[in-house]
Design brief:
The protein has helices spanning 3-9, 11-32, 42-63, 68-78, 90-114, 116-126, 141-158, 162-179, 187-193, 200-204, 211-214, 224-229, 239-242, 253-256, 259-264. It is an all-alpha fold. Bound molecules: zinc ion (2 copies).
Length: 294
């Protein structure tokens, strides 16, 4: 077996080992040197956030007929997709895959914030009152299914090597857990690392209750898309310690940090102000717009 076949053969072991190893490393780091004091009990948050992760992986297995890696294998057998029509070394095709799929994740994330219906789903990720390694994995099941369908469409168009899809999924999972961790790197290291990778201080800005800050730093792995598309913000106005995490309107832990409330969150309340077509402008600049509801 070639190394790429070996990787594919052990993909479940690789995924699980990477998930639990990074959860343990980041969880330990947060315990020893937390960036911010947490508001809620870790036992409650972790059991509910990891509960939704477990539910999501179960649902993906039950509801979808295939996986991203299996679909990429089918595409290469059939010659479907751009990269399957071109001759290039596996390493180059893998780099193109990782960068291209990461850009799709960035664009999808911007869309989740802009479109009212999709923001309802994505609110579940943002409503966590604290920010730590488990926040990085908490998404509403419908958002997870939608992400997977977007990923399938990307694979059919791009025709990436199956092993590159596996690497992309493991890297995205690892970087999401890293950059949601309640840790801080030394400032100089953080600034240097931001050329290559989204750091915890960079992504934390995206979890601010301030609308303009939440509409910044959409990247999950590579920070370049925020620089290129103009959505980058280096720090929150109140600083990493003073900023408030979550969504203005949804501050009840029973609702936003308990599994039933999290699952029900997309179906309640109005979406106003925050989504792209609900913002109000007033020509008279002396008048302030009404305060945002979320
Ligand atoms: Zn977001
Ligand atoms: Zn996030």
């Amino acid at each position: 077996m070639s190394w790429s076949q070996q990787l594919l053969h052990y993909q479940n072991e690789i995924r699980l080992t990477a998930f639990f190893a990074i959860l343990a490393i980041m969880g330990g780091w947060e315990q020893i040197a937390p960036r911010r004091a947490l508001m809620l009990s870790k036992v409650v948050r972790w059991s509910n956030n990891l509960g939704i992760v477990f539910l999501n992986s179960l649902l993906l297995r039950l509801l979808l007929p295939t996986t991203a890696v299996a679909l990429a294998t089918l595409c290469s057998e059939q010659g479907w997709g751009l990269l399957n029509q071109m001759q290039m070394p596996l390493l180059v095709a893998s780099l193109v895959t990782i960068v291209a799929m990461d850009m799709v994740v960035y664009l999808q994330h911007v869309m989740m914030h802009a479109i009212p219906l999709l923001w309802r789903l994505h609110r579940v990720h943002h409503a966590d009152l604290d920010y730590d390694v488990t926040t990085g994995a908490r998404f509403h099941p419908i958002e997870i299914l939608l992400s997977m369908l977007i990923k399938f469409a990307t694979i059919i168009l791009l025709g990436p090597p199956a092993v590159a899809v596996l690497l992309f999924e493991v890297i995205l999972n690892a970087t999401a857990m890293f950059n949601h961790a309640n840790i801080g790197l030394p400032l100089a290291l953080d600034r240097w690392l931001r050329r290559l990778l989204v750091t915890p201080d960079m992504h934390r800005v995206h979890h601010s209750t301030e609308d303009d800050e939440a509409n910044s730093n959409f990247g999950f792995s590579l920070p370049w898309w925020d620089y290129i598309f103009g959505t980058y913000r280096s720090e929150p106005r109140l600083g990493q310690q003073g900023m408030q995490i979550g969504i203005h309107r949804y501050r009840d832990p029973q609702q936003v940090n308990q599994l039933p409330g999290m699952l029900w969150l997309p179906f309640i309340g109005r979406v106003s102000e925050y989504a792209i077509n609900r913002r109000q402008w007033q020509r008279d600049e002396s008048k302030q717009p009404p305060p945002s509801e979320e």
